Amino acid sequence: MSPLQPASLASLRVSKHHISAYQNFPNTSLRPYPFMIYHSAYSPSSLSASSVEQHLRSIGVVNPAWRYTMYKQHHYHSNVDEVLVVVKGSAKLCFGGSLSNPDKLEVEVSKGDAMIVPAGVGHALLEDKSEDEPFQMVGSYPIGSKNWDMCTGEDSDKGSKWKTIRTLGWLRGDPIYGDKGPVLDVGE
């Protein structure tokens, strides 16, 4: 059992967004699952990268894979859904694959926020807004998933990569809450 406890489900504020395909970024158009933000999923005062990794492992839905910021290049993953938890600082991020996408989502996230990024959703760092420490997240992928790929919206990505996205299942539980939680209330 992890000593880190997420916010209660009753108090959790969740944003769900469907983002249309744009150019060579499929976003959420190929599957019924939305991009989601769990606002203040964890209390910033008790949060560290290690405690988040331990908590995610104890839930058993995803494996923490890295600690880093977000790439400034718009990209998506075609073979895996991604869970991102902000563990340091704050940032302005873009979801939708391009700043020219009229349906893009620009959001500010900060320490304690968690994001569920379905395969196909383009994402990029617009601005690190941290004052004291550089923006950092823990990135995680479903247990049993392959190594994630990096698709940058090339014309060649559209055929086989989009087909791969259509064949993916969904997370087998909520990565933060386990057998309850917002991830289980979406989709099919």
From TrEMBL:
This is Cupin type-1 domain-containing protein. InterPro entries: Cupin_1, Cupin_2, RmlC-like_jellyroll, RmlC_Cupin_sf, UCP019307_cupin, YjiB-like. Residues 39-149 form the Cupin type-1 domain. It comes from Kwoniella dendrophila CBS 6074. It comes from the Eukaryota. Transmembrane segments: none annotated.
